[in-house]
Amino acid sequence: MNEQAFIEALRLLPAHPAARGLADDCAVIEIGSETLVLTHDMLVEGTHYLPEADIADVAWKLVATNLSDLAAKGAEPLGVLIGHMLGRDDERFIVGLNEVLAHYQVPLLGGDTVAGTGTRTHGLTAIGRATCTPVPARSGAQPGDVLWLVGKVGAAMLGFEALRDGTGADHSAYSRPLALLKEGQALAPLAHAMMDVSDGLLLDAFRMAEASEVTLAIDGAQVPVAAPERRLACLTWGDDYALLAALPHGTQPPCNAARIGTVEPRGFAPLFVDGEPVLNAAGLGYSH
Amino acid sequence: MNEQAFIEALRLLPAHPAARGLADDCAVIEIGSETLVLTHDMLVEGTHYLPEADIADVAWKLVATNLSDLAAKGAEPLGVLIGHMLGRDDERFIVGLNEVLAHYQVPLLGGDTVAGTGTRTHGLTAIGRATCTPVPARSGAQPGDVLWLVGKVGAAMLGFEALRDGTGADHSAYSRPLALLKEGQALAPLAHAMMDVSDGLLLDAFRMAEASEVTLAIDGAQVPVAAPERRLACLTWGDDYALLAALPHGTQPPCNAARIGTVEPRGFAPLFVDGEPVLNAAGLGYSH
């Protein structure tokens, strides 16, 4: 069974019509007067990181990518639980874990460790509290909204290539991405829709368009990219953890952000890039 | 690095003195007027289940063992997030997942799916709300308390053997354990200490004694066992998910429970079984 089929089958379970927290989105639950946001993401050796990667970087990325999911909801992290398969360089894993948790001032609440062989997998659950309600979803974009991007795309691509090719260039954008928690919290009360850009700007924009049943029109030249001479690659590479937000027309973002497009009524294509229609998601970015 | 060393190293992280939710215990956090209980446990092919096991049973056990952690805190489940490595018989996994979630009326909130090769691992995070505070911990047993066991031990052992040997006998106690949520909620307001018996009664009692800095004295003959002719094996085998609770002297448990011992001031051994001192945990049960 492939991932899509598995998720579709899960969504058909009668008791769980609202399991929107599968795949990339977060779960949102209300308890008492609070709204909780939960996410669980995994990293797999060979799929999400190079087998020779510094495991400290893997620990960083594991936490940062989950916190990025919370950022897209404007949530404030309460803590993380780790699912750790013991393996090489566990001491380095703990170093990286400590660094990322200290950076974000997020406590390690608990988790589990197991022995295993073969492909190493790392799981992390992050829990946060919403700082505003309703919590923005990827499904709320409305015609007339303006699309904003916080952060730039393509830097992770350059970092990955530096690591892969051993050039010695800075690879921190790939190996130690940052979760834009403050920016997410600032945007959440204003945004009709928001998501983090983990799998490539165009693919994630396509997903927002599909979820919101609108058409997104992106002006590629306005997107902040790390490598202007490779703009299309930057627009389709993932791992940058920028934030994509749809704000009502006339609303200025309360943080640094680039205006990269507009939200239109649903046309024949979910996405237009520089006026060209994109009819399906194949090849737009990184599906995993 | 082995598991114990890894956990000890994590506990030394300056920001996380209270990461008691590592290994078998739950994390407890307060938010607003509510107290949340979180746990994340993993199952590993070959370690926690037979490679030829019905994957539907693995899904059941993955959920039930995490709910059992919540039961030991008297918590009411709010939902689960799953970390799923795709593999053989995913359709069966979904069948078992649906059955266990329906049985406990617990929603699937979200999670992640990944492709992987080699040893298959399954992760699950369960979140619950405490039904009483303070939430009972394994560290609260006090001299003078009486030790009670809800459920019996040894049935999972017989189930495992039936599966392993292909005898055709009932193996549901091993493959589809039950989480004693109602019993945990009934006991929590009364218990000085409580935990679920996942790794063997004697090992878990030893852990309660160490955490509480007391001595537990267990009368082996009073422990409800599934195989009286193999009493010691029943006391040391895991996977039964009974509840072990220390109640104040004179307090009657509000559910079916067996009185199996007493809590004494800390003596030279953490645990006495039928008057014999047990000085260390080696060989007492299943450490993983």
TrEMBL record, chains A, B:
Keyword Kinase carried by entry: yes
Which intervals hold domain PurM-like N-terminal? 24-129
Task: List the Pfam families.
Answer: AIRS (PF00586), AIRS_C (PF02769)
- Residues given in the record as substrate binding sites: 48, 239, 268
One further remark on this entry is: Reaction mechanism of ThiL seems to utilize a direct, inline transfer of the gamma-phosphate of ATP to TMP rather than a phosphorylated enzyme intermediate.
Q: Entry's NCBIfam families?
A: thiL
- Which protein is depicted? Thiamine-monophosphate kinase
Q: Which organism is it from?
A: Aurantiacibacter xanthus
The gene name reads thiL
